[in-house]
Amino acid sequence: MIKAIIYFLFLSQALGIYSDADVFYCYEDLTDDELSEKIKMQPLDQYIFLIVSPLAFMCTMFITYSFLKYPNTRKMPGDIVFFISLSDAILCIHWFVTACYYTVYGESPLSSGPFCQTNSMFSIFAGTGEVSYNVVFCIYIRLTLKNQFKVIPKLPIILHSLAWTAMISIPIIAKFTHNNGLSIFGTCSFKYHPGFPLAGIMLVLFYTLISLYTIWYFNKAIPDDEKYKEIRETFGKYYYRYIKGSCLIWTSQAISFTLAGFNCSYFHKGILLIFITIGNSAKLCTPVVLSILRYNEPTIKDQVKRLWRKVWRRDNVQSELCKHIKYQLVHDDSNFYDTIHQNLKFDQVNTIIFGIRSVCKKDTSSETSVCEFDQIYLVRRQTDSRYCNDSILSNDITRLKSDYNLTTDDFLEEIIYGIDSKGTNNEKSLDLKLLPSTMTVYSPTIFHKIREKDAKMINHFKSFDLIANQDQIKQFKGPDGGKGGAFFFFTHDNKLIIKTLSDQELMVIRKNLIPYFFHLSENETAISPIYGIYKLFRQNVYSINVVVMRNAMQIPSMYRIRTYDIKGSEHSRQVLKKNVKYNDAELRKITLKDIDFQNLEQQLHIPQQYRERLRVCLVHDAQFFSKIKLMDYSLLIIKMDWYTYSQNNHHIKEEDIPNYFSSDLQCIHSINATENGIYYHIAIIDYLQEWNAQKIIEKHTKKAIHVNIALDTSAQNPDDYSKRFIEKVAYVII
């Protein structure tokens, strides 16, 4: 490459292609007419633009057309590649039109003229789009690999908004600061000024660093074993080439821009104008070379092959890529990155379930083979004094010791286990995969006692049987936790739920664990109990907090009739649209809210002896949450069809139903004459939200938007929330 440039330097000097007279002085205060005379596109550059631009345009449009033709390529990150190609296509048009202008008029356009001003805006817009979407692609890979168990709300909108904000704002800023116009390359884009050469180099350096970091993170996140070998090689082969190609081209442009700028400012040598030609050639290489590399992009490779074969009237064939990817668990409309994410999710769920089951093995009296858990080992035990609750009274500490044989250290205890990827004999027979990681078990002694309380109805060891849960794992699609985007996994026997926790929620339960333990142990409560809290950690990749809770349904969701999430508020607490009729099948799938309950149910149709007990129970629970400063909890009411369930499972009798629950208040039969065999499943959920700045802002923002100071928003301080919950839920709905 360097030899070719040196040879071309001598050849151009011998032929007199470039002369000192063609160099202009950047610091001269020139008029538009003088600038147009001074800056000229060399004939060689014109021919390169006229010949290569259409070819480059065809390369980019072929990929663009494949995206328009095949809908599954429009999902992220396919849409990112689409916008990169579209930006390149606009640049090709810009270069071709510029070359045509020189050919027709034989002179440079006026920098402030309508042609150059319009052309420069398109050039800056498309150039910014190319850089922005390459960076967005790196961000997408990083975020999706890190957040396997959490939906980032509106991620595509956020990433596209970032790119388009840059694409729109930068041309506008350039326009209003008078920095767009005729450049030293003879094209209409950014005007040259002394700070630009270094800016180009910094931009290339930034892109190179973020790209190399993406490759490093991908290799860290994807396990280095036989199962993921093809995935790693496919991504590495494509992305290494793409990074190498784009960095070489952009570095060539940056160096050419820098040398051309210094020549304009200091050297004034005609021979150095060759770097303008090199820079223009590098620009044209961008859509050509990168488009060729994009043909191997795993997301669109199959579609591009199909399109080529249709062009040449040959039969479609399936891409070889997915044939070699082991454990292809996704449907045909999934792209390469969907395959990666889905496989990682399955393996992470397997790892979490295995870790929880190994921790819970002491909950059962059945004999457990030692080798069944030979790939989990103790790393260390520790206590975390950060969560020490200073408000705990001395007589509470005494009561812990005398009544429960516990100390405050038991509430702060953490046990850290290591999990390797050997797999047990059973796992190997199913060819399951555990991810090398560490699992932290928080307050194991405390949650063991809470599990013991419900041991007659729930066997955690059996519920988390890894083999028995494989059907649920394979059906698992991803996070589905409402607007919070939490991950939910239901065990095969419908007894338990695994749910992700935020770091904030983890902090809340840990610092309030002593009063929480007392309340659950000494009161009749509707609170859905927590049976364990864990953190799965993979170094330099991610950490996931999960909590195990009782599943309020206890039987398959197909027997669910209605689900209500009740808070006691009326603002934005209606799901069903007015004047729209919903059938039973649609209502089964929707989580309804307060106003929907009022319209459909009015109140719970339960026997009077349960009504008063449940009311007292809810009052005490609300007062407890007010005491420890929590709010935003909900009363979950699920109407379940036990009659149909018992008909389909003849071994189930009505007198067996209480065995599924630790309290008869958790499942109460309906006394409505039209609801034979219908039971209300009741639990308080989502109770780990503190009254913080975010909730305060949410409350006052909604009031301001609706111009109503008395608006009954869902977010209220803990005392007001408790009072409203008691008045509008405990004394109205119940």
TrEMBL record:
The superkingdom listed in its UniProt entry is Eukaryota
Cellular component GO terms, alphabetical: plasma membrane
Transmembrane helix listed as a keyword: yes
Residues making up the signal peptide according to the UniProt record: 1-16
Q: Which UniProt keywords apply?
A: ATP-binding, Kinase, Membrane, Nucleotide-binding, Signal, Transferase, Transmembrane, Transmembrane helix
Per UniProt, residues of the PIPK domain are 376-733
Transmembrane spans: 47-68, 80-104, 124-145, 157-176, 196-218, 239-259, 271-293
Any GO BP annotation: phosphatidylinositol phosphate biosynthetic process
Q: Matching PROSITE patterns, A to Z?
A: PIPK
Q: Which GO terms describe its molecular function?
A: 1-phosphatidylinositol-4-phosphate 5-kinase activity; ATP binding
* InterPro entries referenced in this protein's UniProt entry, alphabetically: PInositol-4-P-4/5-kinase_C_sf, PInositol-4-P-4/5-kinase_core, PInositol-4-P-5-kinase_N, PInositol-4/5-P-5/4-kinase
A matching Pfam family: PIP5K
Q: What name goes with this protein?
A: PIPK domain-containing protein
Origin species, per record, is: Paramecium tetraurelia
